[in-house]
Amino acid sequence: MKRKMPQIILAVIGAVLLAASGVYAGMQISDADNSDTEQKIIDAIESSDSNSPGDTNGKDSMQKVRQAYGIIQQNYLEDVEDQQLVEGAIEGMLSTLEDPHSSYMDVEMMEQFDDQIESSFEGIGAEVSMVNDIVTIVSPIKDSPAEKAGLRPNDQVLSVDGEELQGLNLNEAVAKIRGEKGTEVVLEIQRSSVADPFEVTITRDEIPVETVYSSTETVEGKKTGIIEITNFSENTANEFNDQLKTLESEGIEGLVIDVRANPGGLLNVAEEILSLFVPSDIPYIQIEDQNGETMPYYSDLDEKKDYPISVVIDEGSASASEILAIAMKELGYDVVGKQSYGKGTVQQAVPLGDGSSIKLTTFKWLSPEGKWINEEGVKPTVEVSQPDYFYTSPVQVEESFTYDETDSAISNLQQMLEGLGYEPGRTDGYFDRETEEAVRNFQSDHELEETGEVDEETAGVLEANIMEKIREGEDDRQLEKALQELYQ
Question: In CA terms, which of 56, 164, 405, 418 is 20 to 30 Å from 264?
Fold first, then answer.
């Protein structure tokens, strides 16, 4: 029998959204009665405290917890709140799993999460995860302060406003980063392509939950639709379906689906979108439980679309984005870009009765052909990198960079100049006369003092211009290639 994915609290995002109003864990909350799995987890928790004779190990273990609780309450030097001990015990149990995607969400976090999936919120607009005990950017949100400041997938956050994050769990780190609109936060960032850490100052702002954008381009005389999905949130499937119908009514002859820098979201939303493309004779996803048993899920679609489709991914495409990308790939469509993030697990939110929840990894998700991409990602059928200037980083200028100096930061500046059309003659980090002339030309065009040296002001204007060019989509080789591949 063919099954459709039930609308339960399954989630495929392991990241956390930094926002003043809370932490977005990409989950859809529903009543316990709607999920057999949720009830099974609750039963398992309750059974750990069973008084049955055959469960002496579980009973003894829980007795140790109670004993430790009592000892602390009665003997610790200072006053300790009951709630603090209980939540600490829960967080401690979850930390032993060594799973960055399983965590405790207190009452405040859950209340704020409910608001975030339905409306706009305030923050820096980046999703993070804990990778090797380091807070790591999964992806900045489109047009968010984080994106405008130049944060990239896989950037590591070392400190916040001068306070190191080492030793903090993800929730504690996020609490330091998030804040109200108009306030500033300074993040110390380590990027793999840059030798030294650098600081990024971000002004928090309102982040609208708008997740689908569409446009058309003419390619080889054919009207071609482009749909970008920035997140798989509550209304994304409806937005996508509406915009796809509009494009089809306009007579598109091909479609590009862009999920770059999309960190994932709700599993049922990815299912609804895939059901528009994957016919009923193959599954669009398989779910594997704790016992290794798999269940395929199917759509009701009779046949594939009658026009070609390609999907664009990058290192910031994670979770639900990868579900979509690999399903389309195994259906025979091209996937263009760079290898994706690699998250192949599913989380559920299990309510604890007081408004708080445990977000727990409960399943693996597999591709239609049964492939698990966890920690590996989806490999594109056509690999394409962006121009070098897309990968440049903000430069910390303590003393001006001048002629005859050599520094990795100068290489970074040379790549920016080259990307903006100013020819430095080289990008190896040596500041020669040609680089000096390129700097003078840039300063002249932007009403800066024409010194030929890169001071803090020149570096700031250079960075702002390169980020603006990236956001405008100029030289987007990945999208250009995806459009070309449609009609090959």
Answer: 164
